[in-house]
Amino acid sequence: MSRHSKGKRYDTNEKLNIKKVIAVIIAIAVFVMVIVGIKTLLEVDTKKITEQTSYYPVYTNEKWGVINQKGEIIITPQYDEMITIPDSKTDLFICVYDTDYTTNTYKTKIINSKNEEKFTEYDLVESLENIGKNNIMWYEEGVLKVKKDNLYGLIDYSGKLVLPIEYDVIETLQGVKNSIIIKKNDKLGLCDNKGNIIISPEYKEIKSIGDDYQNGYIVVNNDNLYGLIDFTKNIILEPTYEEIKPVCSSNIFIVKENGTLKAINKDKETLIENKFDDIKEINADNLIFIKNQKYGVINTKQEEKVQAEYDDLKYAFGDYYIAKKGNKYGIINLSNETLLPFEYSKITYRKNASFIEAEKENNVNTEILNDKLEKKLEGIISVVDELKAYIRIRVNDEYKYYNFKFEEIKASDVLTNTMFLSKKDGKYGYVDSTGNVIVDYIYEDALEQNSFGYAAVKQDGKWTYIDSTGVQGTEKYELKNNIIIDFISKWHLAEDLNAYYYTDAE
User: If we measure between CA atoms, which residue out of 83, 94, 89 comes closest to residue 127?
Assistant: First the structure.
């Protein structure tokens, strides 16, 4: 086993479940947003978070254990397989043992921080893994899958049975939270993470509509006919259609009937027919349609607001659309006027923050534009916190903070840390909330204090940490391949962003 191996079950592509841990991450659309999402999670209010114990997998000396938010070892590293922690705030750890790779079998046990075994009445207890955009993994909240006599059910974290042990298969609907597939007598149904049955097991297939369970579900019966059921168990469309596309609004659905793809409303009335090859997106009465592999916009009156001449289209806001020509992006409106020139390699609209991020090829900086398409900021985005409504952006090797009105603010305006990153004469140090220096300006690079009270600092080409009082650790690491640098005491975040664990290995 290599130094960084997570255990054979982690690395293999065979049928055994992968054992990974990832914090629930905010919705992210591009690789840089993966970084933003994780950093946001790592930089929340220190005072609030440290009041509650949290737990994280740790890897050292080729063994797996558990640490808490102070870096203290809770479960001694002794396991060959990565320990699953379904919820970092819950005192439950899933350990895998007696793995047999010839028969694809293994055993699990649940222990708590006192090393006491829980839920021993079951043959197997597992978390419910899911994976979404950018291959980011998460665990279904508040629920575990249990096995007894080759049948499956669900329990909550207290051990209460919330779904009877009577199903042949239980698994997540990929990419959608709070949506759990159940299989019985070779038929599929669906329940939520409280065990409530949303769709009875009577279908051949169940598909999601986007990545939000509130959009509802497409069901396919034994006759290969499609229907639509919402999350409140209402049948929106009976399974009578040859196909239903996984895109809809509250009153517009894309269906295939008698070989023809068309848009209909809830009353089954045809709104648009014979005008498109496919529909990508619906916003109010406007639909992004595809015709001859090109994208345009048509409304429910069958008016082509934007002719199908673009290589891609995505709705932004108002009557603005992100459009692609060749390999470049710009912004147009419903009058097909170019409002932002086609000179960007990627454009993203942040709906909850009401601004646009635009990137140009071979430029590490991102432009931030307001809803009038005026450029307000430019730099490397580090954090976008939609809850506290601020942006942290690196401009010329210096971190700056702005609110969503693009007014510059201080770190202490949005963070409740014990110390704050500061830069002077090309070196980094830390000050208190009033600006008094508490850590001298001696570091070549540094990061803000994280939710655990630790800050990552770089000196002489190596990273280490300082604690909440400014005391520096003795362990030092190069961390050349780490996209995110973060510490809990001597333990640093591992290279693999999708396997959220800490280690003391390089």
Answer: 94
DSSP label at residue 84:
B
Across the range 401-409, mean pLDDT stands at 97
Number of neighbouring beta carbons within 10 Å of residue 227: 19
What is the rounded average pLDDT of the residues 268-276? Answer: 94
If 0-12 CB within 10 Å is exposed, 13-18 middle and 19+ buried, where does residue 264 land?
Answer: buried
Q: How far is CA 318 from CA 321, 354, 386, in A?
A: 9, 11, 20
Contact in structure between 387 and 17 (CB atoms under 8 Å): no
Give the containing element (helix H, strand E) for 283: strand 278-283
pTM summary value: 0.84
Angular region, 388: left φ>0, alpha ψ -120 to 50, beta rest: alpha
- Whether 41 shows a pLDDT value over 80: the answer reads no
Paired residues of 366 in beta bridges: 359, 379
Could you please report the per-residue DSSP string of 179-203? Answer: -EEEEETTEEEEE-TT--EEEEEEE
The three state secondary structure string of 250-264 is CCCEEEEECCEEEEE
Distance between CA 253 and CA 259 in Å, rounded?
Answer: 16
Burial of 44 (0-12, 13-18, 19+ CB in 10 A): middle
Q: Please state, in angstroms and rounded to a whole number, the distance separating the CA atoms of residues 36 and 179.
A: 26
Two tokens, residue 419: 């110390």
- Cβ distance 108 to 126 under 8 Å? yes
Question: In sequence order, what are the beta bridge partners of 393?
Answer: 381, 400
Distance CA 360, CA 367 (A): 9
Name the fold adopted by 169-241.
Answer: Thrombin, subunit H (2.40.10)
Beta-bridge partner residues of 205: 220
What Cα–Cα distance (Å) separates residue 140 from each residue in 143, 144, 175, 464? 6, 8, 11, 34
DSSP-assigned states of every residue in 463-491: EEEE-TT-PBPS--B--TT-SS--EETTE
Cα separations in angstroms, 201 against 168, 188, 370, 494: 11, 4, 48, 41
Could you read off the pLDDT of 301-320 as tens digits, one per residue?
999 999 999 999 999 999 99
Q: How many CB atoms lie within 10 A of CB 325?
A: 14
Nearest alpha-carbon partner for 366 in 343, 387, 347, 352: 347
Which token pair is 31? 């690789």
Name the strand (E) or helix (H) holding 106: strand 105-111
- The answer to whether 471 and 453 have CB atoms below 8 angstroms apart is no
Structure tokens given for 317: 């806001």
Structure tokens at 344: 């960007």
Position 323, amino acid: A
List, for residues 158-186, the tens digit of each pLDDT value.
999 999 999 999 999 999 999 999 999 99
d(CA 467, CA 392): 22
